[in-house]
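Page 37, continued from 36.
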C-alpha cells in the first residue's frame, strides 16, 4: 500500500478495512487457539493504522481542536445576527411548533441574547458603577418584535428566508437534543470545521506537504471565510457545500467516480438547500469549469464529462424547481436592496440601478476592509501558483472565488462589509500553500554558493588537465 504522504491523502479504504477486518483468532501458549472479540480486533487494527499515519492525521486534528477551543471560549459572548431570529423561528417550526409559538420562542431567544450583548457593552465602559439595563432592553426588544422581526413584517421579505430550509433544518436536527440556541451556534461552527478539513484533504490530494496543507486549513479558520462562517447565518453551511463540490470534482477527474459523484452531488444539493440562490450559480460556474478544462487542460482529465454532465443537470434541475415553485429570484433580491426591505414601492430600472450601485461599490471596495488588499494580491498569487501546479484545481478555485464576488455584485451593500464575499478568499486559502510549496521547491533546486564554487573549481581542474 502506498504511504499517505505519497498518495496525497489518508488511505480511507485501508482505514475502513482495518475497522472491518483484522485477525479473528489468536494463539495462546503456542498450541491453543482462542477467539479474540471482534471489537478488540478492530480497535487493535485502528490503533496500528493511526500509529503508522500519525504524522499525517495529527496536523489537521491539532488545527481543528485549536479552532474548537477558540470557538468554545468565545461562544458565551457571541451575539446573534438580526437574520438569526428568522432562522430560529423556522427551526422551531421544524420541531413541530405552530407559527405563532415558533415566533414567540424565537423572539424570546433572540431578545435575551441582544439584551445580554447590550449589558456586556455597558460593562465594557469605564463609567463608575454602570447600570445594566438587561430587563429594560429585553422588554423593549420583545415589544418591537411582538408580531414580526425587525426590520420589516413584509411577507415578501420573510419568504426569502423561508425558501432556505437547509440551515434551520440542521439546527432543528441538533436542537431537539441540545436546544435551539446551542444548535444555532453548533451548525455553522461544525460547517466551518468540516470545510477546513476538506481544504486540508484537497491540498493533500494536490501533493502539498502536510504542514502546508494544515496551514491552508488554519487560514480557512482565521480569515473571513471562517470568522464570518461561524455566525448563526448561512455563510458557514454554504462554504461547506462549495468545498464539498470542489472535492467531488477533483476526485472525479482523478478517476474516483463513486466518491467524486457522491461529494459533488452532496455539495451542490446542500448548497441549494441552504441557499438556492447560491446553488444555481455554483452549478453554472462548474459547467464553465468543465468547458474551460476541456479546452485548457491537456491531456483531458478522466471523469471530466461526468463532472460537466452532473453540474449541468444540477443547474437545470435547480432552475426548473425555482421556476415551478416561484422562488424569489434576482429581481426580488435587487428590490429588497433598493426599497429598504420592501418598505417602499418597487423601483423601475432595477438592472440600471444595480449597475450604478456596483460602480460606486467597487470604487470604494479596497477601502472597505483592511484585508481587501491582501485578498486581492494573495488571491492572484494563489491562482498563479495553482495554474502552475494543477490547472483543473485552479479553475475550480477560480469558480468558487468568482462566486463570492458575484454574490457581492448582486447585492453591493457596503454596511455588510466582507460577509458577502467570503468565498472570494478561496483562492487565497487554497493557493497560498501551493505558492509556498513552489517557492520552496525552487529554492531547493537552486544551487548554493558553495555548490557553485565547487562546480567552478572542478571545471577549472578539468580544463587544466587538458
Amino acid at each position: 500500500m502506498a504511504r499517505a504522504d505519497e498518495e496525497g491523502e489518508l488511505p480511507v479504504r485501508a482505514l475502513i478495512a482495518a475497522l472491518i477486518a483484522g485477525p479473528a483468532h489468536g494463539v495462546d501458549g503456542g498450541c491453543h487457539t482462542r477467539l479474540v472479540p471482534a471489537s478488540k480486533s478492530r480497535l487493535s487494527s485502528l490503533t496500528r493504522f493511526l500509529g503508522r499515519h500519525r504524522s499525517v492525521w495529527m496536523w489537521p486534528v491539532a488545527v481543528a481542536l485549536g479552532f474548537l477551543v477558540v470557538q468554545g471560549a468565545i461562544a458565551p459572548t457571541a451575539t446573534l445576527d438580526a437574520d438569526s431570529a428568522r432562522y430560529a423561528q423556522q427551526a422551531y417550526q421544524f420541531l413541530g411548533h405552530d407559527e405563532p409559538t415558533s415566533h414567540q420562542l424565537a423572539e424570546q431567544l433572540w431578545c435575551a441574547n441582544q439584551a445580554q450583548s447590550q449589558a456586556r457593552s455597558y460593562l465594557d465602559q469605564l463609567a463608575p458603577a454602570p447600570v445594566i439595563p438587561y430587563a429594560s432592553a429585553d422588554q423593549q426588544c420583545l415589544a418591537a418584535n411582538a408580531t414580526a422581526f425587525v426590520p420589516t413584517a413584509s411577507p415578501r421579505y420573510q419568504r426569502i428566508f423561508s425558501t432556505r430550509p437547509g440551515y434551520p433544518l440542521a439546527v432543528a436536527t441538533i436542537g431537539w437534543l441540545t436546544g435551539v440556541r446551542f444548535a444555532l451556534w453548533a451548525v455553522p461552527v461544525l460547517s466551518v470545521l468540516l470545510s477546513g478539513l476538506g481544504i486540508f484533504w484537497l491540498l493533500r490530494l494536490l501533493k502539498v506537504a502536510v504542514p502546508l496543507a494544515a496551514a491552508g486549513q488554519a487560514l480557512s479558520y482565521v480569515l473571513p471565510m471562517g470568522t464570518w462562517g461561524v455566525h448563526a447565518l448561512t455563510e458557514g453551511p454554504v462554504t461547506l457545500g462549495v468545498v464539498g463540490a470542489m472535492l467531488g470534482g477533483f476526485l472525479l477527474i482523478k478517476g474516483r467516480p463513486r466518491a467524486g459523484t457522491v461529494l459533488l452531488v452532496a455539495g451542490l444539493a446542500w448548497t441549494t438547500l441552504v441557499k438556492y440562490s447560491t446553488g444555481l450559480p455554483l452549478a453554472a460556474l462548474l459547467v464553465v469549469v468543465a468547458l474551460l478544462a476541456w479546452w485548457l487542460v491537456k491531456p483531458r482529465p478522466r471523469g471530466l464529462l461526468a463532472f460537466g454532465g452532473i453540474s449541468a443537470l444540477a443547474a437545470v434541475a435547480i432552475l426548473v424547481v425555482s421556476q415551478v415553485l416561484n422562488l424569489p429570484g434576482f429581481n426580488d433580491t435587487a428590490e429588497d436592496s433598493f426599497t429598504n426591505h420592501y418598505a417602499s414601492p418597487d423601483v423601475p430600472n432595477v438592472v440600471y440601478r444595480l449597475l450604478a450601485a456596483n460602480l460606486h461599490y467597487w470604487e470604494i471596495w479596497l477601502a472597505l476592509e483592511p484585508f481587501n488588499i491582501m485578498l486581492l494580491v494573495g488571491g492572484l498569487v494563489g491562482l498563479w501558483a495553482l495554474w502552475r501546479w494543477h490547472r483543473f484545481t485552479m479553475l475550480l478555485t477560480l469558480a468558487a472565488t468568482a462566486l463570492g464576488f458575484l454574490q457581492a455584485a448582486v447585492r453591493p451593500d457596503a454596511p455588510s462589509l466582507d460577509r458577502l464575499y467570503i468565498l472570494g478568499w478561496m483562492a487565497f486559502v487554497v493557493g497560498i500553500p501551493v505558492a509556498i510549496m513552489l517557492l520552496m521547491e525552487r529554492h531547493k533546486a537552486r544551487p548554493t554558493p558553495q555548490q557553485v564554487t565547487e562546480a567552478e573549481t572542478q571545471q577549472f581542474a578539468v580544463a587544466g588537465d587538458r
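The radius of gyration is 27 Å. Flag for discussion at group meeting. The longest strand covers residues 25-28.
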